[in-house]
Amino acid sequence: MLTTGSVPLTCPPVTAENFDTNRLVERLIYIRLHGIPDQPYLYGDNWLTALSADQVRSVRLPSSLVFLEGCYGALFAQAFIDAGALAVAGSSEQTIGKRLAIGPSSTVGQRWLWSVLRGKSAGEALARAGAGENWSVIGDKEARLT
User: What does pTM read for this prediction?
Assistant: First the structure.
């Protein structure tokens, strides 16, 4: 699931082949998709390719903050930084989530989002979220929504 703005996008029906990259142009982006080490793609629950790093790099983000909930999100983060995101929070390892429920990685994401929406920096929000050592902020840890 990609949540950009207030509209959740799911894979399927959204895939890398039909995804409108203009939907990424938001100040706050939350993505709940699967990552695999050394892959420039994020995947839906059925392992369809949902988004590629090249697709992300093809847009100009408006000083965005991004949260990548899925496994190895931190490895995909550079694509968002290259597209103009100020900060990207993600894990360099596997995360534990639940397909149709709130798992540990969703809890970290919800707490991060809650803090960011209340004016905390991306780094401070991640620290407050109770994330483990595998989680980090790539880019400007002091970046905030403005």
Answer: 0.90
The percent of residues above 70 in pLDDT, for the chain, comes to 89
* 128 vs 111: CA distance, rounded Å: 7
State the sign of the Cα–Cα–Cα–Cα dihedral 53, 56, 138, 71: negative
Q: Establish how many alpha carbons lie within 13 A of residue 97's alpha carbon, considering only the half-sphere containing its beta carbon.
A: 25
Least Cα distance to 72 among 48, 55, 97 occurs for 97
One-letter-per-residue 3-state SS of 13-80: CCCCCCCCHHHHCCCEEEECCEECCCCCEEECCCCCEEEEHHHHHCCCCCCCEEEECCCCHHHHHHHH
Mapped onto helix, strand or coil, the DSSP state of residue 113 is helix
> What is the rounded distance in angstroms from the CA atom of residue 87 to the CA atom of residue 38?
21
Q: 3: helix, coil or strand?
A: strand
* CA dist list (Å): 92 to 38, 70, 74, 75, 82: 11, 10, 5, 6, 18
